[in-house]
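Researcher: Please translate sequence to structure tokens.
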Amino acid sequence: MQLPNTLQTPSFFQKLHWVVDPIGYMESAAHKYSDLFTAEIIGFGNTAVFVQHPKALQEILTNDRKKFTALGEPNKFLEPLIGNYSVVMLEAEGHKRRRQLLIPPFHGDRMKAYGNLICSLAENIFSQLPQDRFFLARTAMQQISLEVILQAVFGLSEGERYQKLKRLLILITDVFQSPLTSGFLFFLILQKDLGAWSPWGNFLRLRQQIDNLLYAEIAERRLQNDSNRIDILSLLMSAKDEQGESMSDQQLRDEMMTLLLAGNETTASAMAWGLYWIHHLPEVREKMLQELNLLGDSPNPMSIVQLPYLTAVCNEILRISPVAMLTFPRVVQESTELLGHHLEPGTVIIGCIYLLHQREDLYPQQQQFHPERFLNRQFSPYEFMPFGAGVRRCVGDALAPFEMKLVLATIVSRYKLALVEKQPEKLQRRGITLAPKHGVKMRFDDN
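Model: Translation complete:
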């Protein structure tokens, strides 16, 4: 089968380049083929067509499932992280029913209840950072994000189980913190349990310990049956789909692991990038402060998240430093044309979020951090899509920017910080996401 704009680099080197340096890989390919190209990458079925043209993305992501459909099979490489029963792995009606259960807890009045919690967590963690030496913004933001996950999603804020879970989650997310260790997720030959001191063996033992804690918490909640709890785990446990069925322990475990490993990691990186850009460009910080000052000394969290310039700043952070590189894959169901190229059934298609956000025709001076572009223009869901689009759009697309805005607003309004390094921070693979390469070194500024 002839695929469009096929890269000629040998398969092994393509896969290695994709794992070690995904940004370089994508930019090199886009330099040759600006709208779409065929790549031989590891994961997603190995051979896939990368698409970064907004009109093509709209056609792929809003079709009637006759031409393109989302299948769980290309996501199998994620199984060690999130299991087989996460919404990410489900297909067709199973996926639809699960999303109907997952979406409500992340929207509406429940979000208001999380607002003050998020602000308090940000203030508490930053008040404990060292004043006499530099700290890593990525690490601090991970602490905040993890506490939000544990308290808002799991409903845990104290006790032995809470402390153990927090420690283990930090350890397991750091297993794949570099491009080198991320390779264990993509190359099956590396997934060998050679004991607790081997990378994969360590990961498996950490995962088992986390599983034990999660299942113990789920069992305890089922016995308590407390209808007054508003954390997301409790809400999911009480939810029933259209057929009157509730989620099993295994399904709850897999959804919680998805939120822990995907939601925690991505939000932490996005917020770290936020501190980087806000302090890399002092005028951005000043404009944020001017806007925040209009709300008075003790602003309501719901008023903060509606601020236009703050919203534009967060959108630009997610555009220029996206943590998710790709959409979930679609598979061609019948012979079709896309941007003038013929595609046969079985072809895997992936929307490339990173390259879409770097298009000069959409974002002039695309390498410049310019929040005003989001004040001057309304971008379509297929021009700006940090959380994907269509039926596979991230279920955390409301909670993540909500948390970003409140955390960044809290820190900027209460602390004066400065970047330690003068050289620009760069994007680097961290597991299946992108993160700041050096963690964004910062210090408290006494000037």
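Researcher: Any highlights?
Model: The longest helix spans residues 249-280.
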